[in-house]
Amino acid sequence: MTSQLAALCHRADDPEALAGYWGGLLRREVAGDGRTVLPNEDVECPIRFESGHTARTGPNQVHLHLTSESPSDQQATVARALELGGRHLDVGQRPEEGHVVLADPEGNEFCVIEAGNAYLAGCGFLGELACDGTQEVGYFWSAALGWPLVWDQDQETAIQSPEGGAKIAWGGPPLNPGNEVNRMYLALATSGEEELSAEVERLVALGATRLDPAQTDHRAVRLADPDGNEFVLAVAR
Fold first, then answer.
1. pLDDT number for residue 216
2. How many angstroms separate the Cα of 223 from the Cα of each of 23, 70, 71, 163?
3. Of 4, 87, 162, 229, which is most buried by a Cβ count within 10 Å?
4. Cβ(143)–Cβ(149) under 8 Å?
């Protein structure tokens, strides 16, 4: 049995405020806890915001790509992002590039992709989790989630659920200098404690490592993928 993607988790200085920002930008409802941006469709992933200040020495390991149906739609998304408290961000992009680079109120980078981008066609408004990572880690996550590779070229990889939805992609080398703690990480779910133990063994065999070998919690386990990025496997709530 493979793990199921349960959520994209996001550490934040002010989880409620950042959840409100992303709920407004993605036009998704925020749950009653004030910290979870709920999906609109079954193929979408919840985004859970949690307390935790993380110092940054470089870009986030994960940033989000939002898609556009038309040039005016792209302009409207950018305007909404700025009105909600975001800002433009200069990461060295060239004027002729069609995407717009922005930052949310806590400085987390994201891009609003130009209309007509064939690579993200049909992926939904939140089209991609764009990650800094190796080809090996793309292969790991494909096997871990049971999602097929939809891109594997020049050491760049991408996977997507067979049901569709956002892609998860890794850009290949050279890698950016890592931050001490990633602001964003994936949360996986399995159905029970016995299944959790077996799934941990499977993920370790695929190349994961346990971050807390002496951990006694039988409902959640912290692991790292082959690039050293934290993720959590837990019994489904």
1. 63
2. 28, 40, 41, 26
3. 229
4. no
**Cα–Cα separations (whole angstroms), residue 66 to 129, 182, 198:** 9, 21, 36
Q: How is the chain split into domains, by residue range?
A: 4-170
**Under a CB-based contact definition with an 8 Å cutoff, are residues 196 and 234 in contact?**
yes
What per-residue confidence (pLDDT) applies to 191? 85
Q: What is the mean pLDDT of each run of 10 residues along the chain (237 residues)?
A: 90 97 98 97 95 84 97 97 95 79 96 96 97 97 97 97 97 84 94 88 96 76 95 91
Write down the CATH superfamily of domain 4-170: 2,3-Dihydroxybiphenyl 1,2-Dioxygenase, domain 1 (3.10.180.10)
CA dist., res. 145 & res. 206, Å (int): 11
Return the structure tokens found at 30.
């925020």
Predicted pLDDT at 201: 94
Cα distance between residue 209 and residue 200, in whole Å: 9
0.90 surpassed by pTM: yes
User: Other C-beta atoms within 10 Å of 109: how many?
Assistant: 16
Compute the half-sphere exposure of residue 59: CA atoms within 13 Å on the CB side of its CA. 19
Structural tokens at position 218: 């039988």
Per-position DSSP letters for 149-197, written without gaps between them: EEEEETTEEEE--TT---EEEE--SSPPPPPSS-SEEEEEEESSHHHHH
